User: Fold this.
Amino acid sequence: MSLWTRVANVFRADTVNQQLDEEFESHIAEAIASGRDPLEARRAFGSVLRQREESREATVMGWLEGLRADAVFGWRQLLRNRVTFAAAVFSLALAMGSCVSAFRLIDALLWRPLPVSHPERLYALSRYGLGWDGKMAHFDGWAYPSFARMRDAVRNDAELIAVSPSSRSDLTFGSDEEMEKAYLQYVSGTMFNAFGLQPTLGRLLTPQDDRTPGKSPYAVLSYDFWTRRFHRDPQVVGKTFRLGDKIYEVVGVGPKSFTGTEPGTMTDVFLPVMMHGAVTRDDSTFHRTLAIMRPGVNLEPVRAKLDAVSRGFETERAKGFKDIPKKMIQNFLDQRMEMIPASAGTSSLQESYRHALSWLGALVVLVLLIACANVANLMTALASARAREMALRVSLGAGRWRLVQMVLVESAMLAGCASVLGALFAWWSAPRIVGMINPPDRPARLALSADWRVLAFGVGLVLAVTLLFGLLPALRASAVKPVSALKGGEDPHARRRMMYGMIAAQIAFCFVIVFTAGLFVSTFQRISHLQMGFSPEGLILLETSAPQGQTQAVWDEVADALRSTPGVERVGESGWALLTENSWNNTISIDGGPPSEVLSHFLRISPGWFETVKMPLVAGRDLRPGDTFPGTAVVNEAFAKQFFKGVNPVGRTFDKMKDDGTRLKCKVVGMVANAFYRDIREGVLPVAYVPFDVTVGKDGVARRDGGTFAVRSAGGNLLLLGAELRRKATQTRAGFRVTNVQTQQELVDAQTIRERLLALLGIFFASVALLLAGIGLYGVMNYSVMQRRREIGIRVAVGARSRSIAGLVAKDMFAMVTLGVAVGSVAGIASARYLETLFYEVKAADPVFLTIPAVVILSAALLAAVPAVMRALAIEPAEILRSE
Assistant:
């Protein structure tokens, strides 16, 4: 009989039994027909049941049939205990869904290989060491001339690729009124070929596009952008669009699976790196560098060669540095080249959230362990009620593995049911977590596909969970001794001790979760209530460009038009808004002295900007029309403290140093209060606010091509006002384009996105952990009361008071809770050391952060203990003694 037939027969048992019985009866009929006595014939063939079982071994896959029987029996057992079954499924579904959701997020951002050939050979070049600000960090930006030298030096050992970070830029396929946003990435022409990618339509960029700066105005659209924007129109090849003052021709569409090299951002348009305006500059580190190692080449010699070439380039460039402290230059030159594995790509989102996602992974594992311990206790309680059944099975000849299999099958079914609900939770929750990562104007986009990686993780998770909560009860159930069980069972205290031990572990895990969640909530509260140094409420920001350049008079005309808009109080201009990623810094010299070793930051502003953003003037005056740079500056208090030793700086002078040794002299005319410049986590920086620096063109006219209007609203709907301001700015003067409209409050909120995410996730998982721990406590205490009903009844009969009975029921449990809290406190403080970079002005050893979780957990334990204590107090001694 074939293997497939034997497998199929497992699921048609009644038919197989009927066929075997018919065959058996046919043999008896043949014997009777041949003249044998019917009784003798039946006696000769033996028992019908025995013959059927012997024949089944040849017609049915025995082990599979046993598995099926265990599944049917286990399902009936689960349905007999619906409340316990539902609690276990809910606990596991929440924990397993959180695990799968976390895996999808972590995998998409940190682990999933890029869809390119041989991603395991892909590395990102980075320098590690002291920066110009004197802080240790990784620097992954490169100047293209340095890249070109490194590429030529290792051409035989590796393929180097330049890829800029994806930037959200304005482009138009029609008129200026049809401007749209798209994510652009400048890449080497060799990238697509080196990655082994083929076009969906047209052609991709080639090495021919890497030859001459500014001479390759071609673009490749991503498949995703082609689908969203052009609905897969095959006529898109040959279309043109304008980006800034350049016209680009679409030459092809990329492969469906490739969306760029930055997880978290899906690139819409790929442009040749030769079209970047800074491609010839040796002081603009505008791109990252990826290296594809050739087969069989060792990494270290290549790294050393790249390090030497890079160091030589920077040493040569540093010869032109004038009036920069030698120590700062040496620190810069001493940076060490590193080649970091980048099979999953490289992005700023990875760096920002790598540590946070590691904490998220640890958190869901703890929740999973709590859930497994919880279900293990429930399974142990059920197993104790089936001790006599197990003893009877052993007495009838069931082997230990057979009993283990029976209980594990039941556990696997429970885990399978939980996995279905958990999968739905993971499908719902993962995209929502991604939506919380970045601000609305730059949302994170991750490929959260449910592919074989997620499926394999889910299957492995089900197996692991089944073993975690099912193996111990299965082993204990299979180790039952028939004589002991039939006499009343083994020592109940042994089983209670095991259950109490798991409760202590649950409480310890729960404490760690609640403790770290409290730290993150406190971090978010403190960082979100910081004084900004200005008033972001009601402040609308219009990022504006004038590609051909416009005079200051024209910019002032646009500002006046904005002031005349109903609902506008004040208007000011700056080079960019506060709390963006933009920065302008350099060393300075005080009163003609040597260059400082601390960098000063600068921001170009217009007269009246301080009043618009409500940044208080502390001393001196504001900028006035006619003030120029170099010449005039207003500094903040941090600048005065750092460079003037806290003395009133009004009337003092400083020189802004340039790389070529030129000194730009400025006189301080005012001092304003401290305000955050680009990132609230780095604290207040010394900042000098200077008038707009305009460039004089060949025609002798001074023009500038960009800036940000800060508009103070008098109230009302900021979105509607922003739309009106955009129209007013573009209609006032031809050539002006508002590239982005947002509120200053959005930028402030964007500064705390990571902290908000961690706080929300911490609260959620702390709630889940408390709920699961509470369910576990209730289940164990309820089991304890049921096991000790006779003892409690006797104690009540001999005069025990209610207080004594309550203490008897809850004493051991609260001892385990106290032990769990103590262990959790130590584990929490130890784990917080690895999370310090995610905290803000929070110390894990603060007694408040240890006391609050302890009080919360003890309160939850008390709440879970109340039903069990009430049940114990309701025991009637007469009823117990009568049943005995």
In short: The chain has four domains: 3-60, 63-112+350-488, 119-348, 539-747. The chain has a mean pLDDT of 83. Residues 119-348 form one domain.
